[in-house]
Amino acid sequence: MNAESYERLLPEITPANRPYWDGLAENELRLQCCDACGEYRFPDSEVCPRCLSGSFGWRAVSGKGRLWSWIRMHQRYFSAFEEVRPYLVAYVKLDEGPAVISTLVEAPEELVPDLPVRAVFEPGFSERTILKFAVQGQEPLT
What we know:
- This is OB-fold domain-containing protein.
- The chain is mostly beta strands.
- It has one domain.
- The chain is 11% helix and 39% strand.
- The strands form two sheets. It has a five-stranded mixed barrel. Strands 2-1-3 form a three-stranded antiparallel sheet.
């Protein structure tokens, strides 16, 4: 993978999203959780989309979820992914509620909706760890 091209695609780390990135660096998925109603949210926001409270904290979540949808990307869309085509873009519904779009690694040839997945953490990009998902029960990436 072209690391320089990939790094340009990553969002800026800001004070608002730093707890998310710090969690990934510690192999932990952290999400904002509303102090008023307990709703988890992703991506981060200033107010809760459910109750509009501005009071929240960052909490570690299980990293487990279900595959809701996916596409197998064959065409070159970003040069950073030139060498890894085809790759799987996955829409994962986390057990805690929010949906996350990421990549599915080491996936079986046949996928089915509602397949259990878990977070895996891939270090090495701009000194950041990247969130990806793998089918639950598979060995972690090394």
